What does this fold into?
Amino acid sequence: MATTENGSQGPRGPLAGVRVVELAGIGPGPFAAMLLADLGADVVRVDRPGGAGLGIDPARDLTNRNKRSVLIDLKAASGPDTVLDLVERADVLIEGYRPGVAERLGVGPDVCLARNPQLVYGRMTGWGQDGPLAERAGHDIAYIAVTGALSMIGKPGEPPVVPANLLGDYAGGSLYLVVGVLAALQHARTPGGSGQVVDAAIVDGTAHLTMMIHGMLQAGGWQDRRGSNLLDGGCPFYGSYETADGEYMAVGPLEKRFYAEFTELLGIGDTPDRGDIARWDELRSVVAARFRTRTRTEWTEVFDGSDACVAPVLSLREAPHHPHLAARSTFVEHGALTQPAPAPRFSATPASVQSGPALPGADTEAVAADWGVPALRTTRKDTTD
It folds into this structure.
């Protein structure tokens, strides 16, 4: 696991020179802004006095790494104008309010684009900017539920399994917002291009992620029920199995030649025909019984160096120490905090962890000077008096 030092100034990444204003929120918005910051953008997070009230220590909120923070009270008389001063100098703005809230606060897309016609205004919501549910509250689980994604995860006859908040908030939300922002930024920088609003809804992104499954469904290659298909745990050679010590091994030898190597190393010899779906339960029992004869460590050694597509199921604390991830420095340590390294990787403009989580308001003076917004100093005084 690689280690970086606080205050180090290495390569800034491919987005060096891009300025981003992030209106503080929770979940997918901050993660999207962090990804832009990881890639080298100068992200200024506009925090509200008193914080978001989530109870997380700002010094350990890793989604705020590589950013800078200023304190602005958007409900104060001078708050919107100060944000607009930042917007005038920015390339991108990201907000995650319910539809209409930014407008009521005086920093909606119309006023921001009037101040800066080249601005990319990124809006991160669960339901989107319109539709019957647009103004309703929600969380990741509801968004992935209505798109059909949640229905695919888990065992038949049991409740769907919640995949943390990775599938909706971050895959269907943050990543799609970043793709949209970068595409809009490219348009704004072309001759005759202009700024625009990016409406990134988690329901849209999550539905988009199910594209291949919808194709398989309409081609007759996918059953619309949980735990009955090749990639949803229904297949006995694509899933996880308990080991003798109560740990698990992940198995995925879909191709025949990989499957042949898998069965040889597992030591199960002549097995039920894997192509006969009617015998999948029988095959699963054979595989499960064999995995229970050894520990996770022992099975990891058995399959090491093979093409059997088998891997140990590691915990979050174990993952940074996996030999492959350690060799690639997939996790780094910065300020005594272990965290995933920036991704993806670039040959000419490598990204890195430049700074730890931005503490609310800690960078007000520096941003006021760097961005040429002296009103920030007055705002800081007003919010601390």
In short: Residues 19 and 90 are 5 Å apart (CA to CA). Residues 166-188 form the longest helix (23 residues). The chain is about 35% helix and 15% strand. The first strand starts at residue 2 and ends at 4.
